[in-house]
């Protein structure tokens, strides 16, 4: 590694400085008579499951809303469709609403290939209530401490309406990562690579350990809030399935990085500015730790658990098993990366920072396939994996 950070600062090329700016911007809830009167005025809960169309519903954060669904792999292309990777290109300009619909304006970024859409569960309605940036407090009902996000009501309150208008058969939840400050960890690790020449994993691990109890308590409360909403709408727990899922690692371990640790290709071309030691920690310690903690919450709350920690194996950003599309070779579900690289921020020629380090178009299809497979297994907890050299059709489950 270079000897001092001042040398690094002077030698960093323009895109390196953009990536640094992006990293800095990352983000990655009197009594007696009054109570009796309120109870008397409250409407009675329905006594039966609504007879509306069947529905599959997703709740949570960016990893299930469909963030980064705009991108079919990553490319160094700087114009047009960026070598076929940018689905927001309309032939003359870029229109993210082609992918994210009306939620492109709010930043919830619910994509047209989000998990609930990509999955095949037989539901007549596929309803995505998740929003990029959500924390557990954005799931809770407003009456129980829930908070609005990006102009939208807490997701449990939105679910209450959906549950009365539909016969909900499946609810899938992804939450907790933002409570743990995952975006801030990415930012710290990128800064340590680009300017400080130090590892981030020791301080980041301490931060994760300190935040984990509160974050997991929030996940547990989110599940309780979903259960309460469904009970109020007339559902017994046996009338629907509740799945809690974990997070995949967007970057590979160091032995599977296709760019060297030294020089600038890992950041400028690959969009994966992480030291080997930090990449190994993220892939083999952080992601499994979060998954194990979420599995414990799911078990304690009677929810099914879907472990996605290995879902992107071999398809991560900068993985040796993948390559970036070029002008002569377009994107491919078998050879392109399945997660979005670190975007350069405001001065970049490509998308927006919040899409970074999320499953992209191909990754969203893969997660959807995982949920499809889980739908066929009404009980038990499972981990989802991909088959090397295959597209989303090669996803498979193993029992945890």
Based on the model shown, name its key terms:
Rossmann fold; 9% strand; 400 residues; 13 helices; disordered N terminus; globular; alpha/beta; seven-stranded mixed β-sheet; single chain
| Overall strand count | 7
Mean pLDDT: 89
Low-confidence stretches: 1-46
Gross geometry: globular
Question: How do the strands line up in the largest sheet?
Answer: 2-1-3-4-5-6-7
Total helix count? 13
Q: SSE order in H/E notation?
A: HHHEHHHHEHEHHEHHEHEE
- The second-level CATH architecture is 3-Layer(aba) Sandwich
Q: Please indicate the percent range of residues in DSSP E strands (runs of 2 or more).
A: 5-15%
Instruction: Work out the count of structural domains.
Output: 1
What portion of residues is helical? 25-40%
Main β sheet profile:
7 strands, mixed
Short description:
With 400 residues, the chain is α/β, with parallel strands linked by helices. It is 37% helix and 9% strand. The protein has a single domain, classed as SGNH hydrolase (Rossmann fold, 3-Layer(aba) Sandwich), CATH 3.40.50.1110.
SSE order and pairing:
Layout: H1 5-11, H2 14-25, H3 31-41, E1 54-60, H4 62-65, H5 97-100, H6 103-106, H7 115-118, E2 125-128, H8 155-165, E3 167-174, H9 182-196, H10 201-232, E4 241-245, H11 265-268, H12 276-301, E5 304-307, H13 361-375, E6 382-385, E7 396-399
Helix pairs in contact: 2-9, 8-10, 10-12
């Amino acid at each position: 590694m270079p000897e001092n950070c001042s040398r690094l600062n002077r030698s960093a090329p323009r895109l390196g400085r953009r990536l640094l700016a992006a990293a800095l911007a990352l983000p990655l809830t009197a009594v007696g008579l009054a109570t009796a009167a309120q109870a008397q005025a409250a409407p009675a809960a329905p006594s039966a499951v609504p007879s509306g169309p069947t529905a599959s519903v997703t709740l949570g954060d960016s990893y299930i809303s469909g963030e980064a669904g705009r991108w079919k792999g990553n490319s160094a292309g700087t114009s047009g469709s960026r070598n076929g990777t940018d689905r927001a290109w309309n032939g003359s300009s870029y229109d993210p609403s082609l992918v994210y619909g009306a939620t492109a304006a709010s930043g919830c970024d619910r994509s047209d290939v989000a998990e609930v859409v990509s999955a095949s569960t037989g539901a007549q309605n596929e309803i995505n209530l998740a929003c990029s940036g959500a924390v557990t407090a954005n799931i809770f009902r407003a009456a129980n401490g829930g908070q609005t996000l990006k102009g939208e009501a807490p997701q449990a309150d939105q679910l209450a309406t959906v549950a009365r208008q539909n016969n909900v058969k499946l609810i899938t939840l992804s939450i907790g990562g933002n409570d743990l400050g995952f975006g801030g960890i990415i930012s710290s690790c990128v800064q340590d690579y680009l300017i400080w020449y130090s590892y981030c994993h020791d301080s980041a691990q301490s931060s994760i350990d300190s935040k984990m109890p509160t974050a997991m308590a929030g996940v547990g409360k989110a599940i309780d809030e979903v259960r309460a909403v469904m009970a109020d709408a007339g559902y017994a727990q046996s009338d629907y399935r509740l799945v809690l899922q974990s997070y995949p690692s967007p970057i590979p371990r160091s032995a599977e990085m296709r760019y060297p640790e030294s020089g600038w290709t890992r950041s400028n071309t690959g969009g994966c500015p992480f030291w080997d030691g930090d990449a190994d920690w993220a892939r083999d310690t952080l992601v499994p730790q979060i998954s194990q903690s979420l599995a414990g919450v799911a078990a304690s709350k009677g929810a099914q658990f879907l472990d996605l920690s290995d879902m992107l194996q071999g398809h991560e950003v900068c993985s040796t098993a993948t390559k970036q599309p070029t002008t002569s070779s377009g994107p491919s579900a078998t050879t392109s990366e399945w997660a979005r690289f670190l975007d350069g921020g405001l001065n970049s020629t490509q998308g927006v920072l919040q899409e970074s380090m999320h499953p992209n178009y191909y990754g969203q299809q893969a997660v959807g396939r995982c949920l499809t497979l889980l739908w066929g297994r009404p009980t038990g907890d499972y981990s989802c994996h991909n088959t090397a050299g295959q597209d989303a059709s090669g996803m498979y489950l193993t029992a945890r």
